[in-house]
Each structure stands twice: as structure tokens, then as C-alpha cells.
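Problem 12. The chain below contains 241 residues. Write out its predicted structure in C-alpha cell notation.
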Amino acid sequence: MRTVLITGANRGIGLLLSRLYGERGDTIVYATCRRPDRANDLRSLSADSGGAVRVLQLDVTDGPSIAACVERVRNEAACIDLLINNAGILPGGVAAREPSSSAFGSLSAEAMLEVFRTNTIAPVTVSQAFAALLQAGDEPRIINVSSDAGSFSRSATGGSYAYPASKAALNFMTRCMAADLKDSGIVVAAVHPGFVRTDMGGPGAHNEPEETVPSLAEVIDRLSIEDTGGFYNWDGRPIPW
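Solution.
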């Protein structure tokens, strides 16, 4: 039985990944989010999954919450085979970015730090906390859900500030973790799920999650230790740094 843990599983990409992996029949999904009591769609998915999708509380920016989640998983599972660090924020979403983290002249240090805490630091601290369970896994991998907005090569405009910078920093953190964990056999990669119509992407995004996320899951499953440290599009194409 394969074990997957997904952060930010209450909506959008995280919710769809939880459904896809939960439907496989040979996989237990620990679908985590900050407020399970408000995650109606996720709780319905769990109720209908026959035990394949299990909802856990996890605030990825809170140390005690991370520790409690690790302990809960350790009490139920011998290992984690796949950790998907999906939780992320873009205050206001693409269509109505909050100026305090995106507009020069209105930037707030605390607002920008909140974005970095969630998008950059949390994937590392969560991965670190679950490292022992991952090392016990079968072909273990850590997947950091990034964005092509964090690609220096593809950035040609100003604005946005905190969100793309947080993803560029996450990509570098991915490289660091890949190097540190390679000898442990843990694959670490960053992925871009596409510009999708979620609460974050908004109605003007290019794709529905159902168009890109199934392919993204296939890409994740194909990754090997030779691919560690890479940055990949939802269709498997490498993305330039």
C-alpha cells in the first residue's frame, strides 16, 4: 500500500490530487489542511473514499501543528512514499493581488514575509519533519508545487514581487534539498501545475485543473533519482530556471 501526504488539500489542485490518488485502490492519502472543519469538499471526498482519503489538520507555518501531524501519521503508517507540498498563497489571487505584497509603493514587509513563510519556508520545514518517514518509503519523493512565475528566464515584467520571488526561492530550496537527500534515495523536484482556474488562478486562467492535474500526477509518478533537483511542467517538460 502506497502512502501519500498532500498539504493544502482542501481545494483546487490539492483537492483534485487527493481524489486522483485516493481512487487508485492501492494508496492511502493523508489530505491535510489548516481548517478541516471548513473543508466541506474535502470531508465529503474522505467520507466517500472508503478510508482511502484521511483528513488531517496541518498548518504548514506552525511548528506544533507540523509535529502533531507527523505524530498522527507515524501512529498509523510505517512510512510516506510521496509528500506533495502544495499549500501556497497569493493574497487576493491573480485577478486582485493585494498591493501590500505585490505593488511597489504599497509593499509591507510583514505581508511579503507571510507569503514567503507559506510558499518557501513551509515546504522545507514540513519536508524536514517528515524526512524519517520518507526515508522508510518505497522510491520516496518530495514534490514542491511551484510556478513558472518563479522562473527568471520567463520573467519579463515587473510587479507581483512576493509571490514569484517566493516561488523562485522555493525552486532554490528544492535544489538544496535534492542535493542533501540524494544519498537517502529521496527524489526532490519542483513542478508547475499550469495556470489553472482555481481560487488563486481565477476565471482568467488558461486551464481547468482537470486538464492538467492528471498529467501532473503521471509526471510525479515517473520521476526517478536521475530527475532529482529538476523543475518540471505539468506535461513533463523541463522549465528553465
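Discussion. Strands lie at 2-6, 27-33, 53-57, 82-85, 141-145, 187-192, 231-233. Students who got a different answer should revisit the alignment rule from Section 12.3.
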